[in-house]
Design goal:
The chain contains no helices and five strands. The chain has strands spanning 8-14, 19-25, 37-41, 51-53, 56-58. A three-stranded antiparallel beta sheet has the order 2-1-3, with no helix packed on it. The chain has a two-stranded antiparallel ribbon with strand order 4-5. The termini are far apart.
């Protein structure tokens, strides 16, 4: 990482909108995600399992209760 730039928290988002990874990227470096993915700056809370919907990061929904648990 360069001495004058600060790393940017970046979400790697698949074509279906799923956040598949989060990494720190030096803005002075060349970074390209895998084909079919995009890299977008993201807030600290974003993690794999989140989604990108209409340009906004959305947390995963709570898991429904397993059948027969209620």
């Amino acid at each position: 990482m360069s001495e004058t730039s600060e790393a940017v928290r970046t979400a790697i988002v698949a074509a279906d909108g799923a956040v598949v990874n989060v990494t720190l990227v030096d803005p002075a470096a060349t970074f390209a995600p895998a084909p079919g993915h995009v890299a977008l700056p993201c807030p600290d809370a974003v993690a794999p399992g989140w989604r990108l919907e209409a340009g906004a990061f959305v947390p995963p929904e709570d898991d429904p209760e397993p059948a027969g648990s209620g």
